[in-house]
Amino acid sequence: MANHFEFCETDLNGLCIVKRRKLSDDRGYFSRIFCMEEFRGIGFNKQVVQINHTVTRRSGSVRGLHYQTSPHCETKIVSCIKGEIFDVAVDIRQGSPTFLKWHAEVLSAENQTGLYIPEGFAHGFQALTNDCEILYMHSESYEPSSEAALNVSDPLIGVAWPLLIGELSERDRAHPFIDNNFTGIKI
Q1: How buried is 155 (Cβ within 10 angstroms: 0-12 exposed, 13-18 middle, 19+ buried)?
Q2: Which residues pair with 131 in a beta bridge?
Q3: What is the set of active-site residues?
Q4: What is the C-alpha separation between 113 and 118, in angstroms, rounded?
Q5: Which of 23, 29, 65, 134 is deepest in the core (most CB within 10 A)?
Q6: Residues 96-148: pLDDT tens digits?
Q7: Can you list the domains of the chain with their CATH numbers?
């Protein structure tokens, strides 16, 4: 079996950069977005139960930093299929040595790079180009009672967004900043 992915570990345990192999010819190219057999090799042993597609119209727009709490914590596999985004994962695992540290990758259709985000991370992104399209694969269905988020401008996290934050939903703008009571989520 040919490997369709290269998985690269980051400084945040379990968070992996996913580089897709592109097979090209005169017609264009083929790349695989997901293969259960290959993702098992990095410890993904759950089912993909939901696949979401977003379109973000304007560069500078930010979505995030979203997560779900227990018992609906989720693993996400994120791919940009049009345009370019600055994709961010923040470690919010209770007791983690990298608690509140973040990692970002530029994901695009061109670079064929994705991000594997395990349970216990908040996730968000900034559109770097107009008309970005993102596919998210989730190991859990969306559960409104478990929905939570961090504020994208929280100074305790300090995400260095590459562009001035343009559009941001009222919901995302209203997420509170972290206080001393925030200890993360149990996995």
Answers
A1: exposed
A2: none
A3: 66, 136
A4: 16
A5: 65
A6: 999 999 999 999 999 999 999 999 999 999 999 999 999 999 999 999 999 99
A7: 5-173 (2.60.120.10)
